Amino acid sequence: MTNTIIPEQVASIVFAAGKGSRMKGYDGNKTLLPLLASPAAPYEGARPLLMEVLDNLPPGPKAIVVHHRADDVRRATAALSCSYWFQPETNGTGGALLAARPFLESVDQERVIITMGDVPLIRPETYGQLLDSLGKNHLTVLAFDPRDPAQYGKLEVEGPRVLRIVEWKYWSREQDPLRRARLRLCNAGVYAARRGPLLECLEELEKTPHTVEKERDGRWVTIQEYFLTDLVEIMNRRGYTVGYCLAEEEEVLGVDTPESLRRAQALYAQVRVSSLG
């Protein structure tokens, strides 16, 4: 009799609330843009970004955080037995994670992936590396070293540890050469965490919103946002270990402009050709 080894399941949370305001002429949910484009219409085609993300995640329960065109997302993923968690307002990545807190409280998997529905090219092997790192970390950040780091948040690292994530507008002004040397890698916005410490730190995250100004429907408004990146400092303060894993820049490409969509489609086509050959 052969013993079958069943891989340990992982709980995954995918953020899919975005509108894609920089996609001119497109009013759908950004994560439903196609990786296989129609020659006649750039925003139409097959293989939505979100489906590629979901298929590359490890086995286990999956939660999708929705807001804009939520019903479209539900219909597109109806065959996958995901759960859906509505983010009442687009109040940041931390707000998206807080919307999925009941999911985290309901599952019994101890390892969690947090990822973005518009970052479709992350390989299953990379998610596996993130999860493996939880043997020594309580939270692991997926990092990369881009050719042009402008606009990205940067990891302040000390050896294998991540001390905090610094927004571009702050790290770009940093003058201290020692601090700048520690700000080499950029944040891909994808994480692996142990569920218990993550839930514990969400309580503090919920108490620390940021007041920011955002353009909404052609006018500037002041809103309260929650930053997922704050979890790094919260975990460090509580004595937990935060580390990082490296990925290639093309693998963590986020789709938020027509140009990045075309790039993702071209890279996806290359992967398909190489897998067939």
TrEMBL record:
Which keywords does UniProt give here? Acyltransferase, Nucleotidyltransferase, Transferase
The question of whether Transferase is a record keyword is answered with: yes
- Sequence ranges assigned to domain MobA-like NTP transferase in this UniProt record: 13-144
Q: Which InterPro entries is this protein grouped with? A: GlmU-like, MobA-like_NTP_Trfase, Nucleotide-diphossugar_trans
Task: Give any Pfam family that matches.
Answer: NTP_transf_3
Q: Which reaction does it catalyse?
A: N-acetyl-alpha-D-glucosamine 1-phosphate + UTP + H(+) = UDP-N-acetyl-alpha-D-glucosamine + diphosphate; alpha-D-glucosamine 1-phosphate + acetyl-CoA = N-acetyl-alpha-D-glucosamine 1-phosphate + CoA + H(+)
User: GO MF terms on file?
Assistant: glucosamine-1-phosphate N-acetyltransferase activity; UDP-N-acetylglucosamine diphosphorylase activity
Q: Which PANTHER family does its entry note?
A: BIFUNCTIONAL PROTEIN GLMU, NUCLEOTIDYL TRANSFERASE
* The protein's role, per its UniProt record: Catalyzes the last two sequential reactions in the de novo biosynthetic pathway for UDP-N-acetylglucosamine (UDP-GlcNAc). The C-terminal domain catalyzes the transfer of acetyl group from acetyl coenzyme A to glucosamine-1-phosphate (GlcN-1-P) to produce N-acetylglucosamine-1-phosphate (GlcNAc-1-P), which is converted into UDP-GlcNAc by the transfer of uridine 5-monophosphate (from uridine 5-triphosphate), a reaction catalyzed by the N-terminal domain.
Q: Which family does it belong to?
A: In the N-terminal section; belongs to the N-acetylglucosamine-1-phosphate uridyltransferase family.
Q: What is this protein called?
A: MobA-like NTP transferase domain-containing protein
